[in-house]
Amino acid sequence: MTAKQKTFVMVKPDGVHRSLVGEVISRLEGRGLKLVALKMMQIDRNLAQKHYSAHTDKPFFSSLIEYITSGPVVAMVWEGPHAVRAVRALMGSTDPLEANPGSIRGDYALDIEKNLVHGADSPESAEREISLFFADDEIMCRE
Fold this sequence. Notes:
With 143 residues, the chain is of the alpha+beta class. The chain has one domain (4-138): Nucleoside diphosphate kinase-like domain (Alpha-Beta Plaits, 2-Layer Sandwich), CATH 3.30.70.141. It contains 7 helices and 4 strands. It is globular.
């Protein structure tokens, strides 16, 4: 049996604004992943800068911070075999115009900056992002 893995997923402000949170959750559950933590929140500038710290030297960093702090997000932790890879496949390419039909971005997004969802890109990123958005005691597993 494959070991369970946790990953971090966020429905970004455009996904929340367009009422696509339920669709994202439905697709992840349909894949067989288990939701283990969820909260709606407004990201402040400090948390946004920590979350996107890998992009600080990129020209789009400022607009990324402005966008992710522009409205509420839904932060989640999902668990299952190969959860990081499974979520990345369900989300589709970062550029929605290159995302496969049937993926979340392929079906619902048109803009590379406002592409509905974020998912950790590695187990290490998942661990770091989960610790940024959820305290250890906030993550409870349900059977």
